[in-house]
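This week, look over our next protein:
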Amino acid sequence: MLKVKLGLKGPTVSEICFGSLAISSLQGRVSEEQGREILQYAFSRGIDWVDTAELYENYSQLKPVLTRNPEMKVVSKSYAVTHQELDASLEKARKELGRDSIDIFLLHEQESHLTLKGHAAAWEGLLEAKARGQVGAIGISTHAVQGVRAGALQPGLDVIHPLINYQGLGIIDGSLGDMLEAIAFAAELGIGIYAMKVFGGGHLAAEPERAVNFIRSIPGIQAMALGMSSIPEVDYNLALLNEEPISDELRQAVLHRERKLYIADWCQGCGKCVGGCPQNALYLNDGQVCLQPERCVLCGYCGRYCPHFCLKII
């Protein structure tokens, strides 16, 4: 597994980060114990860091694996706004993950300089926690072009976790070209960058080689977080990045398993996806998007319209 350094100040890690949302109860693809087994297997194959968040509510799931493998690095994220909220989020992560220090801690989903300004007290808390040695690198995650640009200029920021894929699915404030320019700007300043939503929330999974190779072609990106919910997915993704032959059996296991449209419970009922579904398979009911399964053809077009990636083909 290729090792990379995240920018000038971030840690050295494997090129793939294990995205743990896919094994958390938030998505419900696997049991808690199955998720642990998949993460342990990924670590045995050379993936040496895991991405989580307070939102995922899976610290207890990850803790046994982290305890067995103290060299595994961990990223967590928080929506904290105040200094007090940040302190509480960090203490929760340290306690429930069984770590004195969190390797990378991010403010979750920052959209612009205005968002960061609104979280200024939390950022100050992060800077202080880093000075105390309770966190290693600090930064932000973002789905926004302006989030990347503002993050690059944030005093003390080490790492940015931006949304980026070859179709630009999920970027909330600009084009794919705009995001690429913002990432290049951040990279020139020495910021560590690891990509999220490489497969567009599952909508680009039919062309995984193209998806991975696109990210690898961007000079400013050092690594990527990939959500994996099975051992074959781990093997498949590692084969992709190691440019190894992929057997028909493995390809079938990953790309041709039974799939469905998953609607996350954090759906905000904006309705943008309803009008974007060419099959009229989606509708709003009491502020929640609902599905008529008999109409759904799993085209994935609806995912283009959701700013929060609530809709996924899994």
